[in-house]
Queue: 2 jobs
Job 1
Amino acid sequence: MVEEKICSVEGCGRGAVREISYLDAKVLEEKAGLKLKVYHAHPPRRPGVVYLCEEHYKLWKKLSREERKIRELSMKG
Ligand SMILES: [Zn+2]
């Protein structure tokens, strides 16, 4: 049986559809100013994971796409 996961964004409370690494999810804190609850974190070796509902996953995809573009651009320069 799959454990019921709740979105890690503070104040959200919807059911989660995705699990992503906190390293990747950090963009939500940095760009969108959201607070994330991190699971299974054992610093410094394991950054942990966060769970996202469909809404926040979409937002994350959008933000991380922009982030990647910026990174690619700065690498080319
Ligand atoms: Zn959410």
Note: The two ends are 49 Å apart (CA to CA).
Job 2
Amino acid sequence: MADNTDKVAENVPGPYYCDYSCIACHLCVDTAPENFKMNDDDSNAYVYKQPETDEEIELCEEALDLCPVNAIGNDG
Ligand code: SF4
């Protein structure tokens, strides 16, 4: 389970976030490219836009489920 006290600094405010346990595997960026990005030095992913449509929410939930280290959280 992601740790909402350890959120990556670049996350935009809102329910979805990545924490620093991210191992930079890129899976969330590939799954939900409208919402996740890698940071500049490619060391972790972050949420650059909260999902707005049902499709985006579905893909963010898929990324959350698939993240190999459970670094994605949803405080919604
Ligand atoms: S899927 Fe998880 S470990 Fe992989 S880049 Fe995204 S947050 Fe990081």
Note: Helices lie at 27-31, 54-66.
